Each structure stands twice: as C-alpha cells, then as structure tokens.
Amino acid sequence: MLSLRNVRAGYGGKEVLHGLNLAVPRGAVVTLLGANGAGKSTTLNAIVGLARCSDGSIELDGVPLTNGTPDQALRRGIALVAEQRELFGGMSVSDNLRLGGLLRGRSRAVAEDFEKLLDTFPRLRERLAQPARTLSGGEQQMLAIARALMARPAYLLLDEPSLGLAPRIVDEIFDIIRRISGEDTTILLVEQNAMLALEVADYGYVIETGEITFEGDADALRGSAAVQESYL
Ligand code: ATP
C-alpha cells in the first residue's frame, strides 16, 4: 500500500498540497481527479521526490519514502510517467525501452519483458529503430509507458496520459492501461478526463486547491452530483 498522510508539499517556498491524504492499495487502479492547477501533478511529484514535503508522511508498505529521489522511488518499485513524457528524442525507440530496464541489469527476464511489451504495444515494434522524436504524440505516450514498465514497477504513476491526443488513440491507451493493471502493477492515474478515468479506476479522489474534497468507489463518484457537475 502506498499512502500519503497529511502531506504538505510544494516547490521552493510555495505550498501546493495543504495536508493531503491518499491511499493506493496494491492491485488497484486509483484515479486522482481535479481541475487545472489543483495539485494533481504535485501529488505524483511528491511521491517520487520531485516536490518537497514540509509535513506529513509518504510511505510504501509502512516504510517511509518522504523526500527521496526519483531514482530511490524507482528502486522501491514506483515509476512515474510524467506529463512531458521525457523521452530521449534522438535515441531509437528500442534504446529508450532498454534504458527503462537499465536498473535491472542484463538478464533473460529483461529481454523477455522487452518482447512482451512489444506485444502489448505493437505500434512500437514497427518503429523500433526510429528516433523517439519522430513518433506521433500517441506513440510517444505509449513509449513513455512501455519504458516505465521495463523497470517492472509495482506502482505506475501516470500523469495525464490522454493529454493532447486524438480520441481513438486515447481509447487505445486506456485499453492498454486496463490490460497492464492488476496484481503485479498498481496504478495511480491523474486525469482531466474524469469519465474515462472512472471507467478504468476502482477508486477515485477529487482534489481541489491542494486538498482532497471527495473520495469513493469509481461508481459512486460517477453517480455523485457534485462530481458530475464539476468534472463530467
Ligand atoms: P495541471 O493539469 O495544470 O498540471 P495539476 O492539478 O497537475 O494541474 P500542478 O501541476 O500540481 O496542478 O500545479 C499546482 C500548482 O503548483 C500550480 O499553481 C503550479 O503553477 C504550481 N507548480 C507546478 N509545478 C511547479 C514548479 N516546478 N515550480 C513551482 N510551482 C509549480
């Protein structure tokens, strides 16, 4: 279980999260919904140490994670796919993927995961030798997700995977999210597209100006008048 308790966090002197509580049990898909600037990305950033916590705690299975580095988070099994995707544009699709598995060293399991991921993302198989920057937006998002999965993370944090993509590609990406979620891969999904997010999620939180204002089962959130009014 990944848990955030009374987390205050932000950048420099600026506090963005004002006492946030959130729990992501293993095997679940949890979504964090909210308007622009509410603090969704900052929540993910705080988990991997890209935003500083000034109070509260972040724990994975009861062991503190607070104010670590993204590298430490990854070693603990938490991978972030940032909104900007952060691919190495000049490097091939294949090399970007291999970089994702670097922490695991060279092993048969890594080679097998490489092949398995290309089955999950057939568009990437067709473009293995192409520089990442020549991919379409949707393909780049797929590559960013696949690269994160090469580390075989227990927790995958996804920041707005649908952003700026055509509806057909968004559907494709959400199908993939459905397929990779499960016992071995827990997902915390930040989304502007609440309807879509609540279709794949088990549980959801609504964040407003750095605080959780509403939470519940995905079905309950979909049915809630307040959530429908603001986000659906
Ligand atoms: P969006 O969908 O627009 O990304 P969000 O809910 O993810 O919204 P955050 O990105 O967490 O919101 O931003 C919350 C606040 O923190 C905003 O006021 C933003 O300007 C500020 N902020 C975000 N990143 C930084 C940063 N690196 N340095 C300083 N302030 C930041």
TrEMBL record:
<keyword id="KW-0547">Nucleotide-binding</keyword>
<dbReference type="GO" id="GO:0005524">
    <property type="term" value="F:ATP binding"/>
</dbReference>
<dbReference type="InterPro" id="IPR003593">
    <property type="entry name" value="AAA+_ATPase"/>
</dbReference>
<dbReference type="GO" id="GO:0015658">
    <property type="term" value="F:branched-chain amino acid transmembrane transporter activity"/>
</dbReference>
<keyword id="KW-0813">Transport</keyword>
<dbReference type="GO" id="GO:0015807">
    <property type="term" value="P:L-amino acid transport"/>
</dbReference>
<dbReference type="Pfam" id="PF00005">
    <property type="entry name" value="ABC_tran"/>
</dbReference>
<dbReference type="InterPro" id="IPR052156">
    <property type="entry name" value="BCAA_Transport_ATP-bd_LivF"/>
</dbReference>
<dbReference type="InterPro" id="IPR027417">
    <property type="entry name" value="P-loop_NTPase"/>
</dbReference>
<comment type="similarity">
    <text>Belongs to the ABC transporter superfamily.</text>
</comment>
<keyword id="KW-0067">ATP-binding</keyword>
<dbReference type="InterPro" id="IPR003439">
    <property type="entry name" value="ABC_transporter-like_ATP-bd"/>
</dbReference>
<protein>
    <submittedName>
        <fullName>ABC transporter ATP-binding protein</fullName>
    </submittedName>
</protein>
<dbReference type="GO" id="GO:0016887">
    <property type="term" value="F:ATP hydrolysis activity"/>
</dbReference>
<keyword id="KW-0029">Amino-acid transport</keyword>
<feature type="domain" description="ABC transporter">
    <location>
        <begin position="2"/>
        <end position="232"/>
    </location>
</feature>
<dbReference type="InterPro" id="IPR017871">
    <property type="entry name" value="ABC_transporter-like_CS"/>
</dbReference>
